[in-house]
């Protein structure tokens, strides 16, 4: 097999759906995983603050910050729906729900329930 045929075989393997390895998307993939990590860290510390504090709310977890968190999560879900074909309906639905909920939280100043 000469080099041209080997290159064609490699391209054909890369073009097959499901053969791309996760985490190999370059800068965009790395930035996305960093964003997921930061949102996860914020969520874990928010839950810890709910357990640790009684009535005093830390300013880092104010109602506006929680609304912004939900808007960022919705933007990530909607971006997933636009960039990937598989599972795009679920991503759009979750992103739209988070977007509306986040806007409601910001509009009402956190008093949703």
SSE layout and pairing:
Elements: H1 3-15, H2 27-52, H3 63-83, H4 88-108
Helix pairs in contact: 3-4
What does this structure look like?
The chain is mainly α. Helices cover 72% and strands 0% of the residues. The chain contains 4 helices and no strands. Helix 3 runs antiparallel to helix 4 (88-108). The chain is elongated.
List keywords for this structure.
single chain, 113 residues, mainly alpha, 4 helices
User: Would you list the SSEs in sequence order as H and E?
Assistant: HHHH
* C-alpha end-to-end distance: 68 Å
The computed structural class is mainly alpha
Count all strands and give the number: 0
Mean pLDDT: 75
Number of helices: 4
Tell me the overall shape.
elongated
**Percent range for β-strand residues:** under 5%
Taking pLDDT < 50 over at least 5 consecutive residues as the criterion, the unreliable ranges are 19-23
Please compute the radius of gyration using only Cα atoms: 20 Å
Fraction of helical residues: over 70%
Question: How is the main sheet built?
Answer: none
């Amino acid at each position: 097999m000469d080099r041209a045929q080997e290159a064609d075989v490699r391209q054909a393997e890369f073009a097959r759906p499901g053969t791309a390895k996760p985490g190999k998307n370059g800068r965009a993939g790395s930035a996305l995983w960093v964003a997921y990590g930061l949102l996860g860290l914020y969520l874990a510390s928010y839950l810890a603050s709910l357990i640790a504090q009684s009535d005093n709310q830390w300013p880092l977890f104010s109602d506006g910050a929680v609304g912004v968190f939900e808007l960022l999560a919705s933007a990530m879900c909607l971006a997933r729906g636009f960039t990937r074909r598989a599972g795009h309906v679920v991503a759009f639905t979750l992103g739209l729900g988070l977007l509306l909920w986040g806007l409601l939280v910001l509009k009402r100043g956190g008093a949703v329930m």
